[in-house]
Amino acid sequence: MDQQLLVFVATVERRSFSRAAEDLHMTQPGVSQQIRSLERSLNARLLDRHQKGVRLTKAGEIVYYHAKQILGLYGRMEQLVGDLLHEEFGSLAIGASYTFGEYVLPRLIARFRERHPRIAPTISVANSRDVVDRVARGLLDVGIIEGQYGNRSVEVSGFAADQVVVVVPSYHPLTQVAGITAEILSREPWILREEGSGTREVTDRLLTRYHIVPTCKTEFASTQMVKEAVEAGLGVSVLSRWAIRKELALKTLVVLPFPDEPVTRPFALALPVSDFRTRAMALFADFVHEEAKHIDDL
Length: 298
Known about the structure:
Elements: H1 2-14, H2 17-24, H3 28-42, E1 47-50, E2 53-56, H4 58-84, E3 90-96, H5 98-103, H6 105-115, E4 119-125, H7 128-136, E5 142-146, E6 154-169, H8 182-186, E7 189-193, H9 198-209, E8 216-220, H10 223-231, E9 237-240, H11 245-250, E10 253-255, E11 263-272, H12 279-291
Parallel strand pairs: 3-4, 3-5, 7-8
Antiparallel strand pairs: 1-2, 5-11, 6-9, 6-10, 6-11
Helix pairs in contact: 1-2, 1-3, 1-4, 2-3
């Protein structure tokens, strides 16, 4: 059954029998046979075949959800047994919110791999609420999130704070203005992340706190698109200092001296509440807390 579940999950995620066969070093008929055997044992059709690949049936959705958990538990069991033998190895599924996952985590992982080369991280990026949910369901070993999200199955511990700043392109007239006020910023066109993103949430808090009421707003679906739009002169924006380090170094973006006090948002580590955590999970958690004071220098 374990092999059948492994083949089934690979087929679903690759959306193809041939690509799953390639990944698993099997023949395509062998993959098809494993899927048929699983369907016979469950007396249900799990996949619909069509020209563009495969699609889950309703029964398939149920099996896929639980197969991911079963395979995750099996892998964690192997790692825990290895931990008893003091072996430092295994996979580590990490989920992170967009800003941290895209602009900080890659450098952090590079340092972690230097110290622990036999631990193999896999990284996925999602909003913080989804990351916490996947940690609680055992689909992720550890999460890095913005703020605090309550879940009795997850233990959350803060480790760093990200500063958000108001930015304009280096050639913008506001770079020559001595006293930036809310009234001045309200007259500028604004470039914002979409509703529901963590960056948009902290931007809205800043705008409300300092009584900035933009008369013109344009939304983009990613931080990279926002940066490109600001550099192109389309408007002012609020962005994470972590996300604009390269642009500040190249002097394509400039931080305006507004407001006087830094605006920050907390980041936290999310781990499942469990008596059994793999050594890889513990090592990564300790590493993140240890490296927190150096994050701005990564």
